[in-house]
Specification:
The protein has about 450 residues and is mostly beta strands. It has a single domain, classed as 3 Solenoid (Pectate Lyase C-like), CATH 2.160.20. About 10% of the residues lie in helices and about 50% in strands. The protein is built from 2 helices and 41 strands. A hairpin with a 2-residue loop joins strand 38 and strand 39. About 45% of the residues are buried.
Length: about 450
């Protein structure tokens, strides 16, 4: 419809009529009341403002209003957030600088806590680990909202959430001695669009005290430079670590330079790892291990890792997976390791489908099926493996179960297209020829080796 003067006048009159009707329509038509304003708290960079800030937080919470912090440095110790406390900084230039104490920012059973636009600087000062688990430690709080924060220089976790629901979005978390973000027993948590870097042990941890459904969503984050200062064999050094937490979705993340895994799910059933980009990973990039049932690993890109994808520990109950549509390339062997050298594109053990993946540059093997007796009902179909030591290895243990290998293309391999193995060591003839396939539990057909 053309917009002329008559049309605009008519629209204006109509809008005025609606406004007048709303004005006389009574309480149902009235907007929700706006919380009373609270004066902006001004910083004093040289003084301890703990008491002043705590009093302002308490006063604002009582009135149901947000507390605005002016630009500058607020030097504070232990601060307790109240139910519905909302602290809003000035576009990242309002700095809460820790001066020491048992805790820094904490809340317990305080629904609706919200922090926005603040710099949370721990200054590398210690806290009482019995009372605090992070620079921001929030426990048993629903509706938590943490956004546009810069959380840095902490000797524990950056953000620690225990039994919480809500969202952590658009934050920067860096230079902490444990994990950037640690969640325990979440009740519906969204972690998205954050940058987590330079953490001593893990980037993002989603844990539960006991195995159970968690449902957290970890999406569109950047995680980089994650070390393993705490040591161990995989509990540290991961970009995103999921432990005992079922139903967690990890999607669309960019994860680089991790000592162990980009995404590691341990005893976590029904995990989804979809559409992630993983580069420069010291061990297995995408890992589902130990007692889990159900893993979907699809449409990820892995480059420069000791191994691409591993679905393992059938001996501990680890089973049931789909590995589909992934691009895995540029793998390496860890020759300094006495046993666990890796250099494998994809490895699976039980009740799994491996389909439609592209693997290039796997010095040990493109795909491995089983490990000793731990092989059951695996289908490997429609994959492309090129530039590998062996294209596909399958366990030859007499107690191993069935494996279907069909319609794969295998190119430029050095030690055979499809071979039997004993715990990673190839033996026997190339099984890509149908005549060489032993009868029984293996079905190998329609593969093209060039």
């Amino acid at each position: 419809m053309p917009l002329d003067r008559r049309t605009l006048l008519t629209a204006g009159a109509t809008s005025a009529g609606f406004a007048a009707a709303a004005a006389v329509a009574g309480p149902r038509a009235q907007a929700e009341p706006v919380p009373p304003s609270v004066p902006v708290l001004e910083p004093d960079g040289s003084a301890d403002q703990t008491a002043a800030l705590q009093a302002a937080i308490d006063h604002a919470a009582e009135r149901g209003a947000p507390l605005m912090l002016a630009p500058g440095i607020f030097r504070v110790g232990a601060i307790v957030l109240r139910p519905h406390s909302r602290l809003i900084g000035a576009s990242g230039s309002s700095v809460l600088e820790f001066i020491g104490g048992a805790t820094f920012l904490s809340a317990r059973e305080a629904a609706g806590v919200s922090l926005e636009g603040l710099v949370i600087d721990g200054q590398g000062l210690g806290m009482d680990a019995r009372l605090a688990t992070g620079l921001i430690a929030i426990e048993l709080c629903d509706g938590v909202r943490l956004s546009h924060l810069d959380v840095r220089r902490g000797l524990l976790n950056g953000i620690a959430l225990m039994g919480c629901s809500g969202a952590v979005t658009d934050c920067t978390i860096r230079d902490v001695s444990q994990a950037g973000l640690f969640s325990l027993d979440a009740r519906g948590l969204m972690v998205s669009h954050n940058t987590v870097s330079d953490c001593a042990n893990n980037g993002i941890q989603i844990w539960r005290g006991e195995a159970g459904d968690d449902g957290s969503m970890i999406t569109a984050n950047r995680v980089e430079r994650i070390a393993t200062k705490g040591g161990g064999s995989g509990q540290n050094g991961n970009g995103i670590n999921v432990f005992r937490a079922g139903g967690v979705t990890v999607s669309g993340n960019r994860i680089t330079d991790c000592a162990y895994s980009a995404i590691r799910a341990n005893a976590a059933s029904n995990t989804q790892m979809v559409g992630n980009s993983c580069r420069k990973i010291g061990e297995v990039a995408l890992y589902a291990e130990f007692a889990f049932s159900g893993a979907l690993i699809a449409s990820n890109l892995v480059e420069e890792a000791a191994s691409g994808i591993s679905i393992t520990n059938f001996n501990e109950g680890g089973r049931l997976a789909v590995v589909s549509g992934n691009l895995v390339r540029g793998l390496f062997r860890r020759e300094a390791e006495p046993v666990d050298k890796r250099g494998v594109g994809i490895s699976v053990e039980a009740d799994s489908v491996v389909s439609g993946n592209v693997i290039e540059g796997a010095p040990t093997a493109g795909i491995i099926a089983g490990w000793g007796a731990y092989l059951r009902d695996v289908a490997i179909t429609g994959n492309l493996v090129r530039d590998a030591g062996v294209g596909i290895l399958v366990s030859s243990d007499p107690a191993a179960g069935a494996c279907l290998i069909s319609q794969n293309m295998i190119a430029n391999v050095r030690d055979g297209a499809i071979r039997s193995m004993d715990h990673g060591t190839p033996h026997g003839p190339d099984l890509a020829s149908a005549a060489a396939v032993p009868p029984g539990r293996l079905s190998i057909s329609g593969n093209l080796a060039v």
